[in-house]
Amino acid sequence: MRKIGVAVIGTGFWGKNHARNYKELPSTELVAICDVNPERAKAIADQFGVKAYTDSARMLKNREIEAISVCTWSTVLAKEALKGLRAGKHVLVEKPMATNAKQAEKLCEAAQQNNLILTVGFLMRFIPGLQIIRDAIEKRRIGELVCANAKRVSQWPDRIGDVGVVKDTAIHDIDVMRFISQQDPVTVYAKMGSMTHRKFEDYAQLMLTYQNGQSAFIESNWLTPYKTRTLTVTGSDAIMRLDYISQDLWIEQRSETVQPRCAFQEPLKCELQHFAECILENKKPLITGEDGVKALEIAEAAMQSSAKNRAINLKK
């Protein structure tokens, strides 16, 4: 099988994970890494036996590189992704994809114009339990969908952030709700703020409503003493509960509670493997650039809702 030449821009905690997985995958060949910090760039490059760059524009001239992962600070993601697309590279850009939806739309336009694959790092979609939940909803195995509740809470992250909890963590669950329901919400109402008095919000509660009366609730913060990542989906015939960390799934029915056996998978590895397959087979990715735009639009509407203290109608 032909290997895809890949590179990683941004080698913080998550960028290092991208580099490691690319090195391990049989379908990819890690060619280079890039980081503005020269010491870190050299250290990571030496670890994986590849070339180090501090200038992404220079790295993108390397013809061995066919695709890149962009894992920089959130406010730089769109700039680096656009450089990659204009250089003719396929791009996986980490969430939240861009500073705002308009920037994200420009990435989609650039990918389309250059006939390139653009995907976004919403890796929750690659957890087997979530795929089972989506299938159960679609096939009405839990009856009629009533509502979904997501909880994504932890202590303040060690890394210095340049966005708040909505675009950094809650955006995962915004995408999850679109994925499992296969529809977009019609309104969003949110409350958020900063209990630690930092620059960005450190807690948020979002309520999404849908055309058919269903609803979804998202709780996210950087205030709790330990990490929790869960999803509960309520149907008229059963309740499904997923722990993202352990990947355990429970299905609670009237007569019994069952726990399907799901083999644990590293979602990032699955995501990067899928990215490589899409390039090799020229197929549409599970997560498109348009999915990233939609998630950002909902996140921005949530922030607007909190600021105005009212529900915001979302564009059709």
- Stretches with pLDDT under 50, minimum 5 residues: none
What about the largest sheet? 9 strands, mixed
Q: State the helical fraction.
A: 25-40%
For the record, the count of structural domains works out to 2
**SSE series:** EHEHEHEHEHEHEHEEEEEEEHHE
Helical run tally = 9
Task: Provide the β-strand percentage band.
Answer: 25-35%
> What's the end-to-end separation, in Å?
43 Å
Principal-axes shape call = globular
Rounded to the nearest angstrom, the radius of gyration is: 20 Å
Record field, number of beta strands: 15
CATH architect. name of the largest domain: 2-Layer Sandwich
Structural class: alpha/beta
Average pLDDT reading: 96
CATH homolog superfamily of the largest domain: Dihydrodipicolinate Reductase, domain 2
Strands of the widest sheet, in order across it, are 14-13-12-11-7-10-9-8-15
Q: Report the CATH C-level class of the largest domain.
A: Alpha Beta
CATH topology group of the largest domain? Dihydrodipicolinate Reductase, domain 2
Question: How does this model look, in words?
Answer:
- With 316 residues, the protein is of the alpha/beta class.
- Helix content is 36%, strand content 28%.
- The chain contains 9 helices and 15 strands.
- The protein has helices spanning 13-24, 38-48, 56-59, 77-86, 101-113, 128-138, 165-181, 267-281, 289-308, and strands at residues 4-9, 28-34, 51-53, 67-70, 90-93, 118-120, 145-155, 187-193, 203-209, 215-221, 223-235, 238-243, 249-253, 257-258, 312-313.
- The strands form 2 sheets. The chain has a 9-stranded mixed beta sheet with strand order 14-13-12-11-7-10-9-8-15. A 6-stranded parallel beta sheet has the order 3-2-1-4-5-6, sandwiched between helices.
- Helix 2 (38-48) links the parallel strand 2 and strand 3.
- The longest helix has 20 residues, at 289-308.
- The chain is globular, with a radius of gyration of 20 Å.
- The termini are far apart.
